[in-house]
Design brief:
The chain contains 23 helices and 21 strands. With 689 residues, it is α+β, with helices and mostly antiparallel strands. Strand 17 (473-477), helix 16 (482-492) and strand 18 form a beta-alpha-beta unit.
Length: 689
């Protein structure tokens, strides 16, 4: 069944667009605009050209009032389009957060006097709970705050958080003990220890992150903004010095006039990296939103960016690389025993085995010729236990058993039975292939071996190949022995593996890789994963895991799907690719503007500059205005790309860089020549500037 995604919001929903258009006006506030220095400079330019427009109306000068007015209008529109891009990306998060906030309501909690299901309690508001308090939750209750089940077990509906209506079990003493405030208990009762302070629950943090209220700029964003700010400063200095130079040249040559204020500001705006500056906030916010669409919550923008830089992935074998449930794939009789006898014994020994492995043995036996064979009513079933390491049935006076090879062999030998000479070889062969051997016996006779195999998830090998092509190394972590781990690693196509892994082994592995200069990502859900998660650069915790694991992580997967780590890395890469592609486009399209504005600004003083008017623009005024208009309208044209992101392709970084350089750099050079020329034809034909 397909999983229901959280609160789907279309990128260009009409209500969302209306809200963004209104919010964009509010962002004209210079105090809010200061977060984007480049656009703040454009806004200041809009103010100055507006003043110049009214001054020209009162006292006509060298620049026509219509020209000053239109330049001022398009500068304001440039800032407005930038604000709309940011508001639109923020609006999607706010729409989702509004739905989440509906589930964050104050409820009555039963605070216990002691840790017991029967202890006396007092009823208080959930907002009065503090970390360390113990509360009793029962069927029908809404869990009052984040915590851990410390006694009992409950069936919980987490649809308010995950979007999935299927209930989940939360119980004490395991890796599935964490509960989230706002979810609903469907059955049973339990004692929950509160772990979050009021206003700091997982739901509160989700809302804040989705809205962008706690989104801090990532290091790459900060570095890019510093570059943009530096370029802006350079262009301010260039433009500021252009007036005295042009005034001196005009006076010396006796021709032309100094460059006017409106043209100087237009020149600055067109040469400054306004396109990427306008779209940079939208790229970051939209990246977090794309994660949320996949039921993933990033607790920091830095985590998403780090995901884009990851070059080592640590992946658990069970549930990530494999399906997690071993399946019977073959019956292997020992010499002298019939295949049919082994199938029949395996079927009977598994009748009371309700594990996935036991069910798979029955299914394989049925399809292998066992037919409808059943046990009589007086059969005595023997369940599996960690002590005996076997299970089976006493049926019609015959003893059928299946279990670990050493256990069955020891029992048969101790009772005087004969151990087949080829048994060790068959057991070793299955183990070396990555499978799990179960030996089957009937009374004192060993009949053969059942081959259990941990099945790889469909398509997982191909995904690892994609990751390898972009320079990401994959490592499998498993508690299996070295021989089994090596076989599964080879079948899955991972680059390396760690067998018989303990918590300290995972932590040491991460530190070693980081010391070698790698960025490491891993997933985990248990308390024993918390140290390694805290050490990893990108730590993805399962929502159904323990509270220590969730607190140590910087990304939470609401679906509790360990393979989601692969998608998270791809989204991180996509964010970096999108930022790089639009930066390339922004810088490249300035080239055409040089050929439009610089000749127009100085041709009166230096007539030879008319040779640079390769687009054959009509007049200096139409050339400047056309460049400013193109500079403004390219921003909303690129908003869909900023929100959706550049398509991720699993190719090496060098090829990817060259491909994007050609595509976006080439488009950035060519598009303005075409766009400015078309706008110039319209401006010259309609306005006669």
């Amino acid at each position: 069944m397909a999983r229901k995604r959280l609160m789907a919001v279309r990128a260009f929903d009409q209500a969302l667009i209306r809200e963004a258009l209104v919010d964009a006006v509010k962002k004209f506030d210079p105090w809010r605009q200061k977060e984007n220095p480049v656009m703040l400079a454009v806004e200041i330019g809009g103010i100055l050209t507006t003043i110049a427009f009214f001054a020209a109306l009162l006292s006509p000068g060298t620049e026509p009032p219509l020209f000053s007015g239109l330049i001022s209008l398009w500068l304001w529109l440039t800032v407005y389009f930038s604000n709309v891009a940011e508001s639109l990306s923020e609006g999607r998060g706010k729409a989702r957060a509004a739905s989440l906030r509906q589930s964050r309501t104050g409820v009555t909690a039963r605070r216990l006097a002691s840790v017991s299901l029967t202890a006396p309690f007092e009823e208080i508001s959930s907002t009065a709970l503090n970390p360390g308090d113990h509360v009793l939750v029962r069927e029908g209750d809404q869990i009052p705050s984040d915590g851990e089940v410390v006694m009992g077990a409950v069936l919980v509906n987490e649809a308010a958080i995950t979007g999935e209506s299927a209930p989940v079990v939360r119980e004490s003493g395991g890796d599935r003990s964490a509960v989230t405030g706002g979810t609903t208990v469907l059955a049973n009762e339990a004692v929950v220890r509160i772990t979050a302070a009021p206003g700091q629950t997982f739901l509160d943090r989700m809302i804040a992150m989705i809205e962008g209220a706690e989104r801090r700029k990532t290091p790459n964003e900060v570095a890019l903004e510093v570059l943009l700010f530096a370029l802006t400063g350079v262009f301010v200095a260039v433009v500021a010095n252009l007036y005295p130079v042009s005034a001196y040249s005009a006076a010396s040559s006796g021709q032309g006039a100094p460059v006017g204020l409106t043209v100087l500001i237009a020149l600055f705006v067109c040469l400054a990296p306004t396109t990427i500056a306008a779209l940079l906030p939208a790229i970051g916010i939209a990246g977090m939103d794309r994660l949320f669409q996949r039921n993933v919550i990033a607790l920091s923008g830095r985590a998403i960016e780090a995901a884009g830089d990851v070059n080592v992935l640590l992946l658990d074998k069970t549930g990530t690389i494999t399906l997690g449930d071993r399946q019977a794939v073959a019956f292997v009789p020992v010499n002298g025993q019939a295949h049919a006898a082994l199938i029949e014994a395996s079927l009977l020994a598994s009748f009371a085995d309700e594990t996935p492995e036991g069910r798979s043995i029955i299914d394989l036996a049925r399809t292998s010729g066992a037919g409808d064979r059943t046990c009589p009513d007086d059969a005595v079933f023997v369940p599996f236990s960690a002590q005996t390491r076997q299970s089976g049935v006493d049926c019609g006076g015959v003893r059928y058993r299946k279990g670990a090879p050493d256990t069955i062999v020891r029992e048969v030998a101790a009772a005087g039975g004969i151990v087949p000479a080829d048994l060790d070889a068959k057991v070793a062969g299955i183990a070396s292939s990555g499978g799990t051997p179960l030996v089957v016996s009937r009374d004192l006779t060993i009949l053969g071996v059942v081959h259990l195999k941990d099945i790889l998830k469909p398509g997982i090998r191909e995904r690892f190949e994609d990751l390898r092509r972009i320079g990401i190394q994959t490592m499998m972590i498993t508690g299996d022995n070295h021989l089994t781990a090596a076989a599964i690693a080879a079948e899955a196509g991972v680059d390396d593996f760690l067998a018989e892994a303990k918590p300290e082994d995972k932590l040491r592995l991460i530190r070693d890789r980081q010391a070698e200069g790698y960025m490491v990502a891993m997933t985990g859900d248990g308390t024993n994963d918390a140290p390694a998660l805290a050490q990893a650069d990108v730590a993805v915790a399962m929502n159904n895991g323990t509270q220590p694991a969730r607190e140590a992580a910087n990304i939470i997967d609401l679906d509790s799907d360990p393979t989601k780590l692969l998608e998270i890395v791809e989204i991180g890469k996509q964010i970096l690719m999108t930022r790089g592609a639009l930066t390339t486009f922004s810088i490249a399209n300035d080239i055409a503007k040089y050929f439009a504005i610089i000749p127009a600004a100085l041709v009166g003083i230096y007539p030879v500059l008319s040779e640079l008017n390769v687009m054959h623009l009509s007049t200096p005024y139409s050339a400047v205005l056309s460049a400013v208009i193109f500079n403004a309208i390219v921003i909303p044209m690129l908003v869909p790309l900023a929100l959706k992101g550049v398509r991720f392709r699993p190719i090496p970084a060098g090829r990817l860089f060259l491909s994007n350089l050609i595509l976006y750099g080439g488009t950035g050079v060519i598009a303005p020549f075409i766009g400015i020329k078309l706008i110039d034809l319209l401006v010259a034909g309609v306005l006669h500037l």
